[in-house]
Amino acid sequence: MSSHVSSVRNNKKTEKKIRIQEAAIHVLARNGYHGTTVSQIAKAAGVADGTLYLYFENKDDLLLKIIHERTGQFIEDGRAILESIESPMDRLHKFAELHLASLGADEDLACIFQIELRHNIRMMKNFSETRLRKYFNILEIIITEAQEQGRIRKEIEPRHTAKLIFGVLDELVTNWLLSERDYALVDMADPTLDILFNGITSRT
Amino acid sequence: MSSHVSSVRNNKKTEKKIRIQEAAIHVLARNGYHGTTVSQIAKAAGVADGTLYLYFENKDDLLLKIIHERTGQFIEDGRAILESIESPMDRLHKFAELHLASLGADEDLACIFQIELRHNIRMMKNFSETRLRKYFNILEIIITEAQEQGRIRKEIEPRHTAKLIFGVLDELVTNWLLSERDYALVDMADPTLDILFNGITSRT
Amino acid sequence: MSSHVSSVRNNKKTEKKIRIQEAAIHVLARNGYHGTTVSQIAKAAGVADGTLYLYFENKDDLLLKIIHERTGQFIEDGRAILESIESPMDRLHKFAELHLASLGADEDLACIFQIELRHNIRMMKNFSETRLRKYFNILEIIITEAQEQGRIRKEIEPRHTAKLIFGVLDELVTNWLLSERDYALVDMADPTLDILFNGITSRT
Amino acid sequence: MSSHVSSVRNNKKTEKKIRIQEAAIHVLARNGYHGTTVSQIAKAAGVADGTLYLYFENKDDLLLKIIHERTGQFIEDGRAILESIESPMDRLHKFAELHLASLGADEDLACIFQIELRHNIRMMKNFSETRLRKYFNILEIIITEAQEQGRIRKEIEPRHTAKLIFGVLDELVTNWLLSERDYALVDMADPTLDILFNGITSRT
DNA sequence: AATGAATGAGTATTCATTCAT
DNA sequence: GATGAATGAATACTCATTCAT
Predict the structure, then answer these.
(1) Per DSSP, which regions of chain B are E strands?
(2) Residue D187 contacts C where some CB pair is shorter than 8 Å
């Protein structure tokens, strides 16, 4: 019974935390980190300013936790989906699709990742050393497996290639965000992978 | 005579402006835009706070002008160098080398481009619509020419490919900046181009 | 029976109130009034923040009541002890000893009296008009009695002298608190009274 | 010439600093340290909030500097006056008069010393270790000299006596501040010194 | 042109207090 | 009685920008 009560309490607490995070994502995406006041976020979340500090240590921590939790979720979800795919080349394809589809589906979140995350070199480093490392690891494993199966050239350096793939996808997202967004981001997956897989040079 | 005086004056003016910009690049690279005060820049440049406003409209304008002028210079220099190269494939190669070499040679400037530029969505848009457009245009022309010469596949979309190439190079620079920087950035050019040119798939 | 229950209830209530006060004395002595939060006191007392307000009107009232009750107790105790002493000069001596001994025995409480009490001119006035008045009255009576017995000079103004004695003792306590506290406060009683009784001038 | 300019500048700077300090003394005496906002002080001084921070590190530093400078001045002035007095007993008398007269002449400053200074244990310690030490030293020297001349009893411990004298004077000031102030503080000097010199016991 | 003292708008954060449970 | 989550008023301090000299 007490566990039930506590679980209800936890749900309520989590619920409010999520409400604040979602409000924050929305406001931060529009105004940027330094253009957003804590009061704005609190108002958007429908709580008092002080309430924010019951769930987050400070404004910085709020942004940090948003990025940390959302990317963590993304990586978990992605891992689960990818595991069910046999061929490493198909996995690579799915990987790119997931990246583009998920950021293309939530412009606010995309804005936070592409613009706000880069604000702060400390935050970038933290992100780079935790999430990006995991992200690269997944890619590396796929690439290595594909090499073992003879699908990818042996001379290719997996970690270097992981960076390239991330760089390409990252640029596509940023470009889309700065554009009129009159095309579906995920549609860029196929032509992009064509180049990565086959190169741009003609073989005649 | 008066023109001579004015030119001297201009030189003096330009000289001080450059001194301020160089001081700013150094300080901004270390502390970030929001971590740097106008006073700090002024002190580093050896001028009074108010003097800064004789050369730049405001703090934002200072960063904007630094990025604008340095990238303008880079593009002009690059264009000149590339014009002397016959083969479009060699030009492409040189292009990537120039990108990596110039940013790898000036860590402070690289920091400004990779981190500070992204602070501000307005600044990003401005950059994207002016400098990045020119940058992409150069790439597009090279790619188109290579296609005409049958060196690059006809199905390849030049603008899309330009984005990809920029994305890849951009990611390499950012990664290098966040790393220990114990390798030469320009050395990444060859393996990167190998992938872009030939793709990652094996052909057996 | 109901009176029994109520008395038990009162005891319980009193007990918790005292627990809060003791926790408060400890925390306030270390951190000072403005350096102490209500939460800290509540935590130290092992109760919820809100509980504090069932026993005290507000944070100010808590400090006020501590000082009021402790000094009230001290004065009652002192009065009882002094009554049993015949000679007014011995009473005066005992008085000084009590002052120094009781504050020297509880550094936390001493800290509250010497430092925290002075926070607030309103609190000071209140203290001065209630407790200090009583304190001075006791001294005055002793002095007057000693004058009647010819032990103290007739020209001496009792109230003025009461202030002097308090001032001297008060300074001794403050000095001790700010010192390394490597001596017993009560040991200052004798040399101090020697001066007050006999003056500093030599009579040869 | 440049020295003249600089001296004018210094005067101007000093002048504004003093203006701020005087405004602060006035406001702090009425509202107490924690009851006074920086804005209130700035407005009372006729400057902008930020200007205050050109002259003082922070609110704390402002109070600290007021106390430090005023007591420093008081001690210097006092020393000069006392030096011109031959007899150590007369010096002692003058000393007490100076203490009471100077604080009795500036109620605001007195309030700061008697109430605000005690707020903060850190400030008290600082004051005790710098100003109070000097103050005690002056007293000690006078007392020792008087002992050598056979005017004060040999058994008297000079430092202990210095504390007593300070304690007595301090209490007189505080009492006066908390009273209706319908008497001249300096008039307390004579009866007080009578007791300190001759003691309270009758000699018949 | 150059200065740098002065400005004052702008904001993250704290914490005493309340009140629904 | 007891709780502690929620509140939101209150404030020291910063710093881009100005302008009299």
Answers:
(1) none
(2) no
- pLDDT by residue for chain D (204 residues), tens only, comes to 444 555 555 677 788 999 999 999 999 999 999 999 999 999 999 999 999 999 999 999 999 999 999 999 999 999 999 999 999 999 999 999 999 999 999 999 999 999 888 877 788 888 999 999 999 999 999 999 999 999 999 999 999 999 999 999 999 999 999 999 999 999 999 999 999 999 988 876
Mean pLDDT of chain A: 91
Q: How many residues does chain C have?
A: 204
**Nearest to residue C167, comparing CAs of D31, D28, D99, D73?**
D99
d(CA B187, CA A33): 36
DSSP class of residue D151 equals S
> C54: number of CA atoms within 13 Å, CB side?
12
Q: How far is the CA of A165 from the C1' of E13 (A)?
A: 42
Distance linking the first and last C-alpha atoms of chain B: 74
Four-point Cα dihedral C44, C49, C51, C55, nearest 10: 80
User: What is the dihedral angle through the alpha carbons of C108, C114, C116, C121, rounded to the nearest 10 degrees?
Assistant: 160
Q: Helices H, strands E: what count in chain A? A: 10, 0
Nearest CA in chain A to B176: A163
Question: Which DSSP string corresponds to A41-108?
Answer: HHHHHTS-HHHHHHH-SSHHHHHHHHHHHHHHHHHHHHHHHHHT--SHHHHHHHHHHHHHHHHHH-HH
Q: Which of residues 4-43 of B touch A (CB under 8 A)?
A: 32, 34
Q: Which nucleotide is nearest to B61 (CA to C1')?
A: F16
* Whether residue A120 has pLDDT greater than 70: yes
Residue B145: CB atoms within 10 A of its CB come to 17
Copy the structure tokens of residue B9. Answer: 């004056």
Q: What is the crossing angle of helices D189-198 and C158-178, to 10°?
A: 70
B163, B175, B204: residue with CB nearest A175:
B163
- Report how far residue B160's alpha carbon sits from residue B140's, in angstroms, rounded to the nearest whole number: 9
Identify the pLDDT of residue C14.
86
Instruction: Tell me whether residue A178 is exposed, middle or buried, using C-beta atoms within 10 angstroms of its C-beta: 0 to 12, 13 to 18, 19 or more.
Output: middle
Q: Yes or no: say if D196 and C199 are a contact pair by the CB < 8 Å rule.
A: yes
Restricting to C residues 59-98, those with a Cβ less than 8 Å away from any Cβ of D are 89
Residues of B in contact with A120 (CB under 8 A): 32
- The model carries a pTM of 0.89
| Cβ atoms A143, A162 nearer than 8 A | yes
Contact C201 D156 (CB under 8 A): no
Q: How far is the CA of C40 from the C1' of F4 (A)?
A: 14
Closest alpha carbon within chain C to D187: C160
Q: What are the Cα distances from residue B174, in Å, to B104, B113, B114, B132? A: 10, 9, 6, 17
Facing residue for B198 by CB, picked from A115, A172, A201:
A201
pLDDT means per 10 residues in chain B (204 residues)?
Answer: 56 87 96 94 97 96 94 93 94 96 94 86 87 94 95 93 94 91 95 92 76
Q: Do C118 and D119 touch (CB under 8 A)?
A: yes
Phi, psi for D201 (deg, rounded to 5)? -70, 145
Distance of CA C44 to the CA centre of its chain: 23
Measuring CA to CA, which residue among A124, A193, A126 is closest to residue A164?
Answer: A193
- CB distance C160–D192 less than 8 Å? yes
Inter-chain contact B191–A166, Cβ cutoff 8 Å? no
User: What's the residue count for chain A?
Assistant: 204
> What DSSP string describes D15-82?
HHHHHHHHHHHHHHHHH-STT--HHHHHHHHTS-HHHHHHH-SSHHHHHHHHHHHHHHHHHHHHHHHH
Which is more confident, A2 or C36?
C36
